[in-house]
Amino acid sequence: MAQFMGDAVFLMELSLVSLGLIAIHFGRQQRAVLVSTAGTILAVGAALTAVCTSFYWISYAQQGDFSHAQIVVQIDSTGDE
User: Fold this and answer.
1) Residue 71: which pLDDT band, with cuts at 50, 70 and 90?
2) CB neighbours of 49 closer than 8 A, spacing ≥ 6?
3) Rounded to an integer, what distance in angstroms lies between the CA atom of residue 18 and that of residue 20?
4) All residues at 6 or more sequence positions from 68 whose CB lies less than 8 Å from its CB, including other chains
5) What's the pLDDT at 17?
6) CA 22 to CA 46: how far, in whole Å?
7) How far apart (Å, rounded) are the C-alpha atoms in residues 54 and 36?
8) How far apart are CA 14 and CA 62, in angstroms?
9) For every residue of the chain, which 3-state class applies, written as one string?
10) What is the reported pTM?
């Protein structure tokens, strides 16, 4: 299940990168500096977030967290935090 959540987040980030590139293109066509700047911020931010998601997705896969069907949460039975 955790693997599919990672896949869904990555696909959402890819769609945000695409939306940012569309905004950059539209901003340059219309000579709208604000739209072009917003598209650049969106595309760069989404790309950096995708890199971060990929890093953690790979590290969790190497730890074997994707070999289970559900997320395993360990709770301390003593109640201490």
Assistant:
1) low
2) 13, 16
3) 5
4) 2
5) 97
6) 13
7) 27
8) 23
9) CHHHHHHHHHHHHHHHHHHHHHHHHHHHHHCCHHHHHHHHHHHHHHHHHHHHHHHHHHHHHHHCHHHCCCCCCCCCCCCCC
10) 0.77
Report residue 80 as tokens.
Answer: 């201490």
Token pair in block for residue 79: 């109640």
Here the tokens at position 66 are 């994707």
Burial class (CB in 10 A: 0-12, 13-18, 19+), 1: exposed
Residue 58 corresponds to which tokens in the numbers above?
């790979």
Please report, for the chain, the start and end positions of each structural domain, with discontinuous segments joined by +. Answer: 2-64
Amino acid letter for position 32: A
Q: In whole angstroms, what is the distance from residue 9 CA to residue 56 CA?
A: 12
